[in-house]
Amino acid sequence: MAAFNADVLRPQDAPEPDPGLAAWTCDLLSGRHPTFTPGDATVIEDTRTGAIVSSVLLISQTWSFGGVPLKVGQPELVGTHPDYRGRGLVRAQFETIHQWSARRGHQLLAIAGIPWFYRQFGYELALVRGGGPILFTSSLAPPDADAVAAFRVRPMRAADLAFAVETNAQAAARYLVTVPRDESLWRFEWSGRSPASLVRHELRIIETAEGEPVGFLGHGAGLAGTALHVYMYELRPGVSWRAAWVPVLSYLVGTGQRFAATDGENKFGCISFWFLGPEHPLERVFPSQGTSRPTAWYLRVPDLPGFVGAVAPVLERRLAESPVAGHTCELRLSFYRGGLRLVLERGRLARAEAWQPTTKLTGQEWGMPSTDERRPSAMFPDLTFLQLLFGFRALEQLEAAFPDCIVRTNEARTLLSALFPRQLSDVWPMV
Q1: What is the pLDDT of residues 91-106, one digit of tens each?
Q2: Dist CA 208 CA 166 (whole Å)
Q3: Please, which pLDDT band fits residue 266 given cuts at 50, 70 and 90?
Q4: Are 197 and 140 in contact (CB under 8 A)?
Q5: Closest CA to 227 of 273, 275, 268
Q6: Which long-range contacts (CB under 8 A, 24 or more apart) does 44-49 make?
Q7: Which member of 85, 101, 157, 282 lies 3.0 to 4.6 Å from 106 by CB, making a disulfide possible if both were Cys?
Q8: Domains, the chain
Q9: Alpha helices in 160-213 (DSSP H)
């Protein structure tokens, strides 16, 4: 399976299989991963040759939606040999892992995958992924020695894991969807992966000259082309991002130069903070010299009414802080072939249930205000409501992108905007 994944899932246009994918696969199948076992993978083989021709993994984990814990399943390392594509092999495996997911009580499935493909299995691109700034080394001036001396960067140690847990939890308050990590999960990230794994990060602690930890940093274990990728960068509250920036930058430049000298093939040209996403505090410290286009996570919510009910504390908190605090009403949301009914009583979500729009109405549907309670309050085509639910787009952005996204009344607009504002997320999955 390691050889299969390294070959079939190699980066676009890469001339050779990717050894990092092979090492990651071996790590997952070794039994060391906190939530994955070899029995969580499906394999399709050609019985004539015994060769693996398609495979899928399902990694269970816990995410957070505004502080509400969620059981999540992440399909990963999904691949089919080119000679066997178009035969429904991935579909058959997804039907199996969706059954596993249901038995495990997963409230959400998520995958960062190729364009369009996973839509056919009930997934929607609905959670922002990446899009942070890029810094080109050619434009950097030599750092100020006194500024560098104010902080230093060193390897993370076992004694630092509790600090990483606390600092990461504090940073999560900025975001809607995050992936909480306790000390055991941090320990796996710190020492549980093999050196060659594609998903292994070099973990570092940022500390004062006196040795007091103030933040952590995670970057790639080598260059990706000409780029050194930074996957995580957080400081504890009360520490100046500006003051820490110069020594951190000096460390990253030195590390990139060291990787380039060791590699011998790739030159070091930039530091990419793409994985930090847009609007990270770092963006207010230095002017961006460019960004790469963000992508998005595919999401699948098997039981939408149940999910909305589970995150009711988040929705009620938003409502209480809005101009419609304490409001009582009913929202009927049409997805054209299905729908969702939300009943609000004095600012509390009393019910979230499936709702079926009727076709037995006289006259055309123009989306105008109506006294007929059989008509929906708002209409969202296909799975686009997930973009609103997970803060990927604000209501106005969704309407601009989809002409058949229609809100019938000002009351519905005010409530939907209060319940589902645009909000960034920071997903570092446990893979």
Answers
A1: 999 999 999 999 999 9
A2: 18
A3: confident
A4: no
A5: 268
A6: 44/84, 44/89, 44/92, 44/93, 46/84
A7: 101
A8: 2-126 (3.40.630.30), 134-293 (3.40.630.30), 303-419 (3.30.1050.10)
A9: 161-171, 183-191
